[in-house]
Specification:
213 residues, alpha/beta, Rossmann fold, 5-stranded parallel β-sheet, 7 helices, 5 strands, globular
Amino acid sequence: MKVLDVGCGIGGPLREIARFSSASVTGLNNNEYQITRGQELIDLAGLSKRCNFVKGDFMHMPFPDDTFDAAYAIEATCHAPDAVGCYMEIHRVLRPGQPMAFYEWCMTERFDPGNPRHVAAKAEIELGNGLVDIRTTAQCLQAVKDAGFEVISAKDVAEDSAVPWYQPLDPDAGASWTSANGFRLSRVGRLVTHAMVKAMERLGVAPEGSVRV
């Protein structure tokens, strides 16, 4: 199969999917640095014959109609300024009847815009993930339908996950201090990281606003 990764980053899922499925995967990304790094990684993984990257905007994809057998997006199309327009582009480049799978940051029906704690949590997720406004699950599903897709399955994976979605970010989740990630999440590690980023921002190495993010 010929598969499209929409907003692929440096291609972590792209490489894993290519390994276990033997599919040919094309990653679409508008960031030149990430594409360069992703290409290095697929070369190291020995996947350059089946995987490649294309620089482009997922609102205006540089592919002809009916190009791919499947498409997926992982926390990517939530950055689209127009969800319907983005999903329509994915629909256009897929062959008729072929599937798209994606997961997104969404606000569930439990979100109460009148609850200050809910609003604050939403705002911090938006800030940390570079999102203008997190859409509701209902809005995302309607956008998928409006783009011409049929919804086969939709699920909030946080509802019955064996581990909480935030476990990789939790300093009390059992990560070892001897690992880089474990130290980074510890109280001391967070203080060190904060001090380093603050210094980098003051020196102009990191962009303004990095400490806040």
